[in-house]
Each structure stands twice: as C-alpha cells, then as structure tokens.
C-alpha cells in the first residue's frame, strides 16, 4: 500500500462510499485511525481494543473472507457482544468525585486515550501570520511494552560475574 | 553492584517502551491528523474550555511575543477516555459509548469493507498500512492498484 492507495482510500471513504456506518461519527473515527496508523506505523492494537477476554473473540484472520457486505450489518445482530455496553460502565465517571481524586481513575483499555495526546498552539515563525497547531502523541502500549525487568543470567554471564 | 552490572549488560531490559510522535498541520485537510483529532475532541466536548462548538478559535489565534506556545488542556473526566470508541446499543438506539474503546474486529470490518468498495483486489487489513509506512521509510513505495485506477478517481 503506497501513498496513492491511501489517497484513493480516503477519497473513496469521504466522497464515494455508499456503505453506511451505525452512526456517521464512526466515519470520522475510521479516517482518524487510518491517518494515525499510517503516520506512526503502529499496530492497530494501540489504537483499538484488541484484547481477547472482554468480548467473544473473533479471529480477524478466519471466517471473514466470505463476509457479505450487502447483507446484515454486524451491529444489527443482537447477539454480537461487541455492541453491548459493559455493565461497569459508569464507574469511571464517579471516580472523579471520589476522595482519592483523579488517581482513582484508571484506564480500562490499553489504547490511545486523551491524556496521551498533547495539543499545542505554537507561534508562527513567520511574523504576522496565524499560529500553527502542533500535536504530540505518546504511544505506550506496543507489543512487549509491559515486559517487567527480569534478571537475565546466562552461564557465560554468571562466569564473568563470579570470576 | 552486581545488579547494576547486569543492567549494563542488558540495556534492553531497562528501556522505557514509550514513543512520542510529533505532528504538524498538513495543507490538505484530508491528510491532516490534527484536524481529525480536533474534530473528535469537539464532538466529545473534551476541552477544558466549556462551550466550544467550532474549530474556528484554534485557527484564528495570534500569540504575542512573551508567549511562544500554549497547551490545550483536556477535561479531567476525559483524560482516561479512549479517543476511538465503540458504538453500543442503548435505549435510544445506537450511540457512541462513553468509555468503551473501539473493538479491533469492528475496525477490521469497516476497513475491509472500505477496501472492497474502493476496488482493491486483495483483502485490506491493518497491516497493509503498517507495511506501507515501513516501505515508505525504506524509500520503496509501491501501490496495490494499477495506475489507471487513479486516473479514474481523479476525473
């Protein structure tokens, strides 16, 4: 996939796509995810929830080749647990009024959250022109990111320490 | 002493695995990630400043000399909320969840459907984008579709 493919996809997505989304807000979400993925080269697991335990896991590599896009949309299937709100949904909002303050809030998903993004308005280096926007995005949930510090002792290392 | 020696030998174990990417405005709005994030934040009402309903204030500022840059703050309640969220069923029909992150399988469905609609011969997966970025970094950009397909869309 090259830059031309990306431009083709985005143009099609915004201007020519006849498929509908459950809510058209999702069209913006999909475009934003595509841009973030393309600019950072991250795995999609950092931007979307790819955990297996939370909902019935569907292997993205299996059984999707024969998806019929004219038929029923997945969100119309009432048995699909992906589209059901989790029961403990309101816990986070109550945490703010808690005595423990903001610390009691916790991230529920290992995905990109608002705190990972810092938006800046920066003065334009050219005098007299409008300020520019800049953005810092910190990705911290890549594969292997939660490895703990483990002492790693190999026989040759042990020898050199002991000698 | 010995422990620090071990760490010196295995620097990989002590790394903090975080990467920060910097973005700036792009001239083309369709390729500008900042515009997209700004739009999502306005929809979520995530700015600390209340009552912000348009992006105009962000594009009309003019900071004066002692101030070089200004950080835009988020609401405390939104800090831990995922940016990309799932659509869920509620009493009023489908709506965007307040906290549930977008499922990977849902995005894979949207993305594959988009590629199918745009006329890609192969199944489009998220790793296509990752490979594309890697190839662009290596200076080996290539396209999936033949050149004639792009002439069609530009007409």
Task: Record the SSE blueprint.
The complex is a heterodimer of chains A (163) and B (155).
Chain A: H1 3-16, H2 25-40, H3 91-94, E1 117-122, E2 132-139, H4 155-162
Chain B: H1 2-9, E1 19-24, H2 33-44, E2 69-72, E3 85-90, E4 93-101, H3 104-118, H4 126-137, H5 147-154
Antiparallel strand pairs in B: 3-4
Can you give keywords for this protein?
heterodimer; A: 163 residues; alpha+beta; two-stranded antiparallel sheet; 2 strands; B: alpha+beta; 4 strands; globular
Notes on the protein architecture:
The complex is a heterodimer of chains A (163) and B (155). Chain A has helices spanning 3-16, 25-40, 91-94, 155-162; strands at residues 117-122, 132-139. Chain A is 26% helix and 9% strand. Chain A has a domain at 1-41. The radius of gyration of chain A is 22 Å and the shape is extended. By secondary structure, chain A is α+β, with helices and mostly antiparallel strands. Chain B has five helices and four strands, in the order αβαβββααα. Chain B has helices spanning 2-9, 33-44, 104-118, 126-137, 147-154, and strands spanning 19-24, 69-72, 85-90, 93-101. In chain B, strands 3-4 form a two-stranded antiparallel sheet. Chain B is globular. Chain B starts with a helix and ends with a helix. Chains A and B meet through helix 1, helix 2, strand 1 and strand 2 of A and helix 1, strand 1, helix 2, strand 2 and strand 3 of B.
State the helical fraction of chain B.
Answer: 25-40%
Mean residue pLDDT of chain A: 73
Elements of chain A, N to C (H/E): HHHEEH
| N→C terminal distance of chain B | 70 Å
Number of helices of chain A: 4
* Biggest β-sheet: strands ordered side by side in the sheet of chain A: 1-2
- How many beta-strand elements of chain B? 4
The beta-strand count of chain A equals 2
Structural category of chain A is alpha+beta
Assembly of the depicted chains: heterodimer
* Structural class by SSE content of chain B: alpha+beta
Q: Which residues of chain A sit in consecutive blocks of at least 5 with pLDDT less than 50? A: 59-64, 89-104
């Amino acid at each position: 996939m090259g830059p031309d493919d990306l431009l083709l996809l985005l143009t099609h997505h915004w201007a020519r796509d006849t498929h509908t989304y459950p809510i058209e807000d999702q069209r913006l979400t999909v475009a934003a995810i595509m841009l973030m993925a393309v600019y950072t080269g991250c795995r999609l697991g950092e931007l979307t929830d790819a955990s297996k335990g939370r909902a019935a896991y569907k292997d993205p590599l299996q059984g999707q080749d024969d998806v019929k896009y004219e038929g029923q949309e997945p969100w119309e299937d009432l048995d699909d647990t992906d589209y059901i709100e989790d029961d403990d949904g309101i816990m986070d909002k109550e945490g703010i009024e808690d005595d423990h303050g903001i610390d009691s809030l916790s991230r529920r998903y290992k995905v990109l959250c608002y705190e990972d993004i810092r938006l800046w308005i920066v003065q334009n280096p050219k005098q007299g022109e409008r300020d520019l926007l800049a953005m810092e995005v910190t990705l911290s949930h890549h594969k292997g990111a939660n490895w703990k510090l483990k002492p790693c002792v190999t026989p040759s290392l042990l020898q050199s320490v002991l000698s | 002493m010995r422990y620090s020696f071990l760490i010196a030998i295995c620097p990989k174990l002590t790394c903090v695995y975080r990467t920060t990417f910097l973005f700036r405005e792009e001239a083309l709005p369709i390729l500008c990630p900042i515009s997209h994030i700004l739009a999502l934040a306005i929809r979520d009402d995530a700015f600390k400043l209340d009552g912000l309903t348009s992006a105009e204030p962000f594009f009309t500022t003019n900071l004066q000399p002692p101030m070089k840059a200004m950080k835009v703050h988020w609401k405390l309640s939104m800090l831990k909320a995922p940016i990309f969220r799932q659509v869920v069923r509620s009493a009023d029909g489908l709506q965007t969840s307040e906290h549930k992150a977008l499922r990977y399988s849902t995005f894979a469905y949207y993305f594959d459907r988009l590629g199918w609609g745009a006329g890609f011969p192969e199944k489009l997966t998220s790793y296509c984008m990752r490979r594309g970025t890697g190839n662009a970094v290596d200076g080996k950009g290539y396209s999936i579709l033949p050149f004639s397909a792009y002439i069609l869309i530009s007409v």
